[in-house]
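Review form for a predicted model. The reviewer records the input and the model, then writes brief findings.
Reviewer: anonymous (R2)
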Amino acid sequence: MKRYNSKIGIGILLFLITVFGGTTIFLIYSQAWSGIAINAVTIIFITYLYLNTYYTIIGAQLFVKSGFLVNETIEISAITKITKTKNLISSPALSLDRLEVFYSNSTVIISPKDKLEFINHLQKINPDIETD
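Model under review:
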């Protein structure tokens, strides 16, 4: 079993800190307690996702996890191609430095911290995986 944590993109993190920090300061100044509560719950949820987004290879399976929102199991033998992408679509990736994994008739976009090690590990299990 090998766990690969998601890379954390500084741009996304700074954006979130700016938006939620700024709105929280404004809400505190305005004494908008329900808004502060909503912001707090949102910040806790985002922190939970940051702490629980990772990819695990166990045997011949890749598990993609992002909190309770994404819990996907992919047979590594079904993976056909892995490409680099900067696609902004919502995905279990905490960075814009992403990989798109093609398998069966589907894809998943992820952002492992050590992309090269991750790809090499998958290719050891399935040498037919194409990369760019």
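Findings: The mean pLDDT is 97.
Further findings: The chain is about 40% helix and 30% strand.
Recommendation: see findings above.
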